């Protein structure tokens, strides 16, 4: 079955010249150390409001990483081995882009003589370089790969996509490393398309191990879109009391203070002590410590328990 024989001319988007980020050219995503390519990652990325274009050089002479456990990915993030378990699988450094970005594949001249194309496959087929020769609907391009080709947006929906090199005949370039997995991330940082990102109180970020962009809020804001004000951020509980967020519950102030002895009160500012009803006959009782108190006397009374008239008041009578 002939999968891709004809040549075609690719029309590039108008915005391509405005912002092209080169992938795998050592500058951004890979370095060549001790004779092997190691992919480099920016652990945190902020959502860009305008689409960017990424170019991947489809070549065997650079940006082919060999070790899923170390060079292609760091640590144990998204690590994979081929199903045979005998060796790790070489591949072009994995790519992470955001939904709406443009991906361009650029083939080197030495690969243009064999008739090759790219095919969208499952993760298992990606790992073992298994191409489906019975269908053409998973081919990325309607012609053989030659020069620069823009990947149709249908292959760049949110999620992880696996592309391998397929040939009508001849050697399998996929096993040599000409395969690419692309993770396309969407953002969940707006309540609506017209809303400000993260309500203007945070940043729309993703970590390299995340599948989406989400809001990282600046204190004292919280919530999915940083739309909620956290009343506990102002530390209303005194004397090392713990603040419990009660927002959305039947609580007017939006929080509750959990106090530790000998403190009590709404803000843990009162002391559990000797004050009890009628201990100050003509005044208000205030605890000083857990074992002492003071009576604030009403005029014209005075005394330890405020039951005596002052001398001035007696003379006035």
From TrEMBL:
Domain of life: Eukaryota
UniProt KW rRNA-binding keyword: no
InterPro entries found in the cross-reference section: EGF, EGF-like_Ca-bd_dom, Notch_Cell-Fate_Det
Keywords assigned: Disulfide bond, EGF-like domain, Glycoprotein, Repeat
Family annotation (SMART domains): EGF, EGF_CA
Keyword Metal-binding found: no
Domain EGF-like, residue spans: 185-227, 228-269
Disulfide bonds, paired cysteine numbers: 198-215, 217-226, 259-268
Entry protein name: EGF-like domain-containing protein
